[in-house]
Write a structure and sequence with these properties.
The chain has helices spanning 21-38, 50-59, 115-129, 144-152; strands spanning 12-15, 67-74, 77-87, 98-106, 135-137. With 167 residues, the protein is of the alpha+beta class. The chain has a 5-stranded mixed sheet. Helix 3 links the parallel strand 4 and strand 5.
Length: 167
């Protein structure tokens, strides 16, 4: 749901296809750069070839029965994506089976117009249809815009990741 008073961008949300891989790589690289700027010790540094690497990574899930990648398209241009998957019981994380939102990325020019909400809703519905009893996600501590979106969609804080550098 977009914020009250904000314009909703006319986008089509659909399952990603092979033809979307260059756009997915571009948005994935944006995600890497953004997180690296949040914390240069915790997150991967952008490097040469990151667009094709991320496109290949997301492309490996396009035909998966346990994962989904949706894109938001406006005027035949991909302006965002979400990648989610079904996860089994995890003793390490002290949780039962769940759906997990791994990525949601929206191009800067398409933000604050409901695109992220539409992508998240598509992923949550896919996870619901595939039997997920709950949906979990992680978000960078400094990503206040994302925190606001996720809380608006009904997510609650449950864990805090903490990091110490040993080198």
């Amino acid at each position: 749901m977009p914020e009250k008073g904000k314009n909703v961008m006319a986008v089509a949300v659909r399952k990603a296809e092979r033809r979307d891989l260059p756009s997915l790589g571009r948005l994935g690289a944006m995600l890497i750069r953004t997180h690296y700027e949040f914390d240069r010790h915790r997150f991967l540094a952008p490097r040469e070839g990151v667009e094709s690497g991320y496109a290949s990574f997301l492309g490996s899930f396009l035909e998966s029965d346990d994962a989904c990648v949706f894109v938001a398209e406006q005027n035949e241009r991909v302006v965002g994506y979400v990648y989610a998957a079904l996860e089994p019981l995890s003793w390490k994380e002290l949780r039962g089976p769940a759906g997990f939102i791994h990525d949601v990325a929206v191009a800067e020019e398409a933000r604050r117009a409901g695109v992220g909400s539409q992508l998240m809703q598509a992923a949550i519905e896919w996870l619901r249809e595939h039997g997920a009893p709950r949906v979990i996600l992680w978000t960078a501590a400094k990503n206040e815009e994302a925190h606001h979106l996720f809380r608006q969609l009904g997510f609650r804080d449950t864990m805090v990741e903490m990091t110490i550098e040993l080198t």
